[in-house]
Every structure is written in C-alpha cells, then in structure tokens.
Design a protein that fits this description.
The chain has 383 residues and is α/β, with parallel strands linked by helices. It contains eleven helices and 17 strands. The strands form three sheets. Strands 3, 4, 5, 8, 9, 16 and 17 form a seven-stranded mixed sheet that branches. Strand 1 and strand 2 form a beta hairpin. The longest helix is centred in the C-terminal third of the chain and has 13 residues.
Length: 383
C-alpha cells in the first residue's frame, strides 16, 4: 500500500504538518473538524499517517468527563503508516504498517521484563494528555496547544506517538479491519485467554455484549467453554451474541429476582468465570455473586463512567472467589499483538463481524451518537 495523500500544507517528512483533526473543545460538545499543526517526531518518536480508527466506548467516557483537559484530540484504536521517524528510532522506518498502542511497552522496565505484567512503568497509561518523553504536546491550533489522549490521538490525519506506543504489523493485514486489535477485540480475547485462562468445559458469564464482551465470548468459545451466558439489557444484541457463541441470553429486566440468582440456578451454584464488560462498578458485585464458591473468578474490563470505587461483601472473597482486573487483556502490546494479527490472517479469530459501520472522517459525530445510543459495535472511521 502506498502512503495515502494528506491535506497537509507541507510535504510529509518536511517538519510541521498541517492536517485535519476532530477536536473536542469541551466535555460532551460535538467534535469540530479543525486544521491542526502536527510537530515532527522528537527522539524515540514516530509520526503516523492514520488510515483507519475505530471508536471505542472509553473515548465516549473520556469525552463526557469534566476533567480539565480541553481542547483535546481523542481516539486510540487505530492503524496507520509511518510517515517519519525521530532520532534514535531503529525499529521503524517510513512506510511501515502499524497499530497504535494506548499502553506501551519499553521492554526494559521491571514490569516489561517480569513476564508477570503488561503495565509498563515507562509507557503505561498516559493520563496528562502530554507526550511521555517531555510532557509536551505535538498538536496545536494557531499556536494554542491541543492535548493528546491515551498517548495516541487517532482522530487526526497525522499523529505522533512514542515508538514504544506502536507495533509493526504485516503489510498484508487490512488496515480497515485490523485497527480493532489495538484495543477492544484484543482486550476481550486476552481477558478470556491470558487473564482468566478459560478452560474447556467451563461455564462463563459475560455482563455487557459490546465489542469487548463479544470478544470474551469468542475467546471462551475457542477455549471450549460448555456454557456461555450473555447478560445485556439491549435485545438488539441477541442475534450477534448467538453468532459469536453465546448459548444463553439473559435480560435482567425480564426477571423479578437478582440476575445473580438466575445464573446460579443455571450453573449449579455459580459460573466458573464471570466478566464485567460494562464499566459499572456496581455490576462487579453482581458478577462476583454469579461465580461459584471455591474457585469462581471475576474479571473486570470496563471503564466506569461514574463511581469508580468498588464495594463488595467480604464473604464473597472469603469463600474462595477471586476478583481481578484486566488491561488490554494482559497482552504485552508490542510482543503479543503481532501474533493476533497473524491469527486473523489465518482465519483463526474473527474481527470483521464486530464492524457494524464504516464512516467518513467528516461523519465522526454521527459515530459518537450511534455508540451513545447503543446502535453499533464498532464504527470504523476512514481518514
């Protein structure tokens, strides 16, 4: 694939690039397509021509937040082509196809070398809206700084990321599909495979049947789970859920008793594994209650919109249940994601089926509304 053309006022690789970006000026306000200036990559950074980016629920959550980091360019689930590299970068060159990484991997810190964690101490979650290296921004509009998001900011025709926050992938992988592996699909598959290690013949319950939840479903089915229970209040998701492998669908609104009691009856005392994929901390208690005594494991993946604190009766843990969290499914992003890309190319995992809408960059606000209204899984935005 040749490097896509841009609307830049200067040639690629020739310093500052002026291009289009969807800028959020305030919490919850419609994004505005603006001309932004994108600085050249600094040492150990790369500048990427974003080809496709998909909208993730956490983009919506952050966009609605009142955190004082505006103006801001959201987006983190993306694929693109390296346009230029900064000083010291040896693993990338112009023209490489890449996935962006909202949590990086330096491969040198205690966590990266431990084999026990994917939470890089150097390039982990960036919450200040600035670059890891110098705590500055690479975006501006008429001299006014624009904040980054999750060290990626893919709602821009060009973006700059640390070289540890991108991973080179096969040029044969379709960029308009594979972008989903930079967050949602990888997160769900990893939660089932790496974090929970779902076993053959086990019972699994998933709360929330969005892209992440359905990726857990896919992972559990491929591991040979005998019963996969999907819990969601939106009946429009039922057909998709069954196609991915859900064996039993539950809508809490259809019952006059706690849904955990329904699940315990269905599973002879509780599921082996429960996954909270909604971003509702109250639902974590329900997930724990839905697990069996002794070995029941609850994995939480969702990003809470409100009330981030978790409360649960100590008895749920005293009887042998376990609660754990999962970030990007436990994958070490640079080390592990290329193998998922290869699995997709070998038709061992599904990705295409999560894409419900393909949209032009100019229609990005429509994508936001579709996700807010629960009318899509993934909207892929073509830059």
């Amino acid at each position: 694939m040749s490097l896509p053309s841009s609307s830049s006022s200067k040639q690629a690789g020739a310093g500052v690039i002026t291009c289009k970006a969807a800028v959020a000026w305030a919490a919850g306000e419609a994004l505005v397509i603006e001309e932004v200036q994108v600085s050249p990559p600094q040492p150990m950074e790369i500048r990427i021509k974003v080809v496709c980016t998909s909208l993730c629920r956490s983009d919506i959550t952050a966009w609605l937040s009142q955190a004082p980091m505006f103006p801001r360019i959201f987006g983190h689930e993306a694929s693109g082509i390296v346009e230029s590299v900064g000083q010291g970068v040896t693993e990338f060159e112009e023209g490489d196809h890449v996935l962006t990484l909202f949590t990086g991997e330096c491969k040198r810190c205690r966590h990266c070398t431990s084999g026990k964690s994917n939470i890089c101490q150097v390039l982990g979650l960036e919450r200040q809206g600035l670059m890891h290296s110098d705590h500055k921004t690479r975006f501006s509009i008429k001299g006014k700084s624009v904040y980054h998001y999750c060290a990626v900011s893919s709602f821009s025709e060009y973006t700059v990321v640390h070289s540890g926050c991108a991973v080179k992938i096969s040029s044969s992988a379709p960029l308009e599909k594979i972008c989903l592996l930079s967050c949602g699909v990888a997160a769900g598959l990893g939660a089932a495979w790496k974090v929970a290690n779902v076993s053959e013949g086990s019972t699994v319950v998933i709360f929330g049947l969005g892209t992440v939840g359905l990726s857990v479903v896919q992972g559990a089915k491929l591991r040979g789970a005998s019963q996969i229970i999907g819990v969601d209040t939106n009946p429009e998701k039922n057909e998709k859920a069954k196609a991915f492998g859900v064996t039993d669908l539950l809508n809490p609104n259809d019952y006059n008793e706690p849904i955990a009691q329904v699940i315990k009856r269905m599973t002879d005392g509780g599921a082996d594994f429960a996954f909270e994929c909604i971003g509702d901390t109250g639902m974590i208690t329900t997930a724990l209650q839905s697990c069996c005594d002794g070995w029941g494991l609850t994995v939480t993946l969702g990003v809470p919109k409100v009330k981030p604190e978790i409360t649960a009766h100590y008895g749920l843990l005293l009887t042998g249940r376990t609660l754990t969290g999962s970030l990007l499914g436990g994958w070490k992003p640079k080390s592990d994601l290329p193998s998922l890309v290869n699995m997709y190319l070998n038709q061992e995992i599904k990705i295409d089926e999560y894409i419900t809408h393909n949209m032009a960059f100019e229609d990005i606000n429509e994508a936001f509304e579709l996700m807010r209204e629960g009318k899509c899984l993934r909207c892929v935005i073509h830059m």
